[in-house]
Amino acid sequence: MYVKVCGLRTEADVATAVEAGADAVGFVFAASPRQIDIPTAQKLIADVPPHVLTVGVFLEQPAGEVRQIATEAGVGMIQLHGDYPRETFAELAGSRLMRATTLTPETDVTVGAYGEEMLLLDSPKAGSGEQWDLTRLTTSRPDGPWLLAGGLTPGNVRAAIEAARPWGVDVSSGVESSRGVKDHGLIRTFVAEAKRDQR
Ligand SMILES: O=C(O)c1ccccc1N[C@@H]1O[C@H](COP(=O)(O)O)[C@@H](O)[C@H]1O
């Protein structure tokens, strides 16, 4: 099970996620209590070992701004939330991309349909800690490298994995003690639970 821990803001957050076995760590450049600036991101990313993917998270920001921030910060992948058209993905081609979307009857759930390497299915309010109705995956479900996000916690991640059978999971709110502040014990428990029975 591929595990991404998102919204990291301190050296201790990064060290904890990496030591816990996270496969990817996320840095939020969108307006959010978890937003970090470029110099801080550069410093944190320098501490991430090469086997762990670094992901920059963006929400409805223009492609030029996304490219500039991602390049300066040095992230390995760009995660795009919002109503981005295929043209924006084409503009950012050359970077590794993750398409973050909600699941509606109209959603194209084919991984790569927009040129992305990974797909993320999230709740309508990204980063809110709200879960969504996973039974919607019975009529339409992706195949390949797709991540489940939205209200996951150490306590519900196993059940969510069994219900949705994702390739990977992504968490932010569920491993925080208060909004924007990571709880290192919860990060360790989340990663262990998500990867349980697979090590
Ligand atoms: O975390 C944020 O503040 C955020 C802001 C803008 C776009 C995406 C954001 N986070 C993403 O939301 C999910 C985690 O959701 P949850 O908090 O666990 O419910 C994850 O993909 C983050 O990258």
Automatic annotation (TrEMBL):
GO biological-process terms attached to the record: L-tryptophan biosynthetic process
Keyword terms: Amino-acid biosynthesis, Aromatic amino acid biosynthesis, Isomerase, Tryptophan biosynthesis
SUPFAM superfamilies: Ribulose-phoshate binding barrel
GO-annotated molecular function: phosphoribosylanthranilate isomerase activity
Chain ranges of the N-(5'phosphoribosyl) anthranilate isomerase (PRAI) domain: 3-192
Lineage top rank: taxon: Bacteria
Documented EC number(s): 5.3.1.24
Pathway: Amino-acid biosynthesis; L-tryptophan biosynthesis; L-tryptophan from chorismate: step 3/5
Known catalytic reactions: N-(5-phospho-beta-D-ribosyl)anthranilate = 1-(2-carboxyphenylamino)-1-deoxy-D-ribulose 5-phosphate
Listed CDD domains: PRAI
Gene3D superfamilies tied to this protein: Aldolase class I (3.20.20.70)
Residue runs in coiled coils: none
Enzyme class: isomerase
Keyword Repeat: no
Family: Belongs to the TrpF family.
Stated name of the protein: N-(5'-phosphoribosyl)anthranilate isomerase
Organism: Kibdelosporangium aridum
